[in-house]
Model the fold of this input.
Amino acid sequence: MILEGLLYAESHEWVKVTNHEGYVGISDYAQHSLGDVVFIELPKIGSVIKKGEMFGAVESVKAASDLYLPVSGKILEVNTKLENSPESLNEDPYGNWIVKIEILDEKELESLLSSDQYVSCCEE
Done:
């Protein structure tokens, strides 16, 4: 399942933009590929991370995978619920965001994929 109305990175993170902020999570495709998520590493609030840089990591029964920020941002919030319930990413990857960011360069949003483009990316 790929949710419309979000922007996607080729590394399988999504961003939901509201004003100058964004909620970032992993796609259904990503959680399915990972398998059962058992741990998540979250960044520190206040961290400034550039587009494409690692902001955390997810560990599953199959593998560990780094998380990359789709756009440059300052971490405003982290979803601490995931620390005790990382499996929530498997249950509802679009309802469980990982970080909330202040978007530092809105032009970077133009390089992200629409839901239709992301479908094509996943099929390759």
